[in-house]
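B., you asked whether I could sanity-check this one before it goes into the benchmark set. Here's the sequence:
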Amino acid sequence: MPPPFFNQLRTEQQLGYLVGSGYIAYNQYPGIGFYIQSSHHPVEYLIDEIHVFLHKIVKNINQYSHVWDALKKGVMQQLLEKDTNLSMKSQRLWMAIGNLDRTFTYNSQMIQTILDIDFYELKSYLISLVSRQDFGEAILFSSGQHAPISLKTEVITNIQRFKSSSQYI
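And here's what the prediction gave me:
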């Protein structure tokens, strides 16, 4: 999703000067992050535009069915890439240790998972994501010069208290 997200919201709509999306692990669970940094638009507008983008992706998802295998192959090739230097290898191994992957087999497990996912499972996942069924979202923002956000929010001022009281999966 990064290229179409960037193209639509940054290039076409000029919503912000920093726009992107990509894979982000949340508490060791896979997730998707979307971000827009803008001094010209209020937070609610930017959030709405992210949701509009996601709805368009789901509506037009079938146009990606013919490239699904190529996309899977590209991700698998990234996972199979050899470390080009000692720094990359140590970073990968330390990350594995931090994620309790003591056998260092996470990448091969991910490759098998990717092989097992078919296009219709992806489509079902995206439909659930957009409809917010069984999904939560964390929105980090700063109102800046705009009025405070009117969505149901909780301002976090004590990170330690937040971490200790949050419901983790």
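One thing to flag: The mean pLDDT is 82. Otherwise nothing jumped out at me.
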